[in-house]
Amino acid sequence: MNSFTFLNLNCFGLNERHRLIAEGKIPLVTYEWEKEKWGKRMRFGKYGLASGVSPSDLWPTVEEVEEEESFHLYRPFSEVMKEVKSSAEKRKSMLQRRMEELAKNESNYENRLKQYEASLVKVEEKKSEAEAKMEKRILEIQEYFGYRIDPKDPRFEVMFQQKEAEEKKATFLMKLCK
């Protein structure tokens, strides 16, 4: 025995196929799936010409080629190139339209900004009027109680509703008097 290895002793209990694979040799064809076309292709892909598989067996038959062509999965190169060119032109035109739109919007930017700032001022004025009215009511209610009261207090809410009712009544009477 020239080359002594543990694998030659088969002390690991491997079957013949696995022992050959572990030694880096080509195992014998033992299973039915290895005799099928896809099994032969795998074997040839792994071991090459040494696998004993004829490369002519690996090519698809005429029927298989016709079946694949019937699915129309593969298109002619010229057709694909036309699609690529048309999609590139479409992308280019969309980009051009977008750039024109941006240029138009950029020319209107100053006017839009002025309008926006003016609307903010109006909103602040409205908000400040409402806040001033609310603060006035809060001060009146606090005067009524004689101390500072939290607006979340239920007594505050009751008094607030009473004040609102009084103001509505006063405005209604003012309208009647006129």
Strand percent estimate: under 5%
Tally of helical segments: 7
Mean pLDDT, rounded to whole units? 86
Q: In the residues, how many domains can be counted?
A: 3
Radius of gyration: 45 Å
Low-confidence stretches: none
SSE pattern: HHHHHHH
The main sheet comes to:
none
The chain-level structural class is: mainly alpha
Q: Shape from CA axes? A: elongated
Number of E-type strands: 0
CA-CA gap between termini = 128 Å
Portion of residues within helices: 55-70%
Description of the structure:
This protein is elongated. It has helices at residues 6-9, 16-22, 37-47, 62-70, 77-107, 109-145, 154-177. It folds into 3 domains: 16-71, no CATH class; 77-145; 148-177. The chain is mainly alpha-helical and 178 residues long. The chain starts with 5 loop residues before the first helix and ends with a helix. It is 69% helix and 0% strand.
What's this entry about, in short?
This protein has 178 residues and is an all-alpha fold. It is built from seven helices and no strands. The chain is elongated, with a radius of gyration of 45 Å.
SSE blueprint:
Elements lengths: L5 H4 L6 H7 L14 H11 L14 H9 L6 H31 L1 H37 L8 H24 L1
Main attributes?
178 residues; mainly alpha; 3 domains; 7 helices
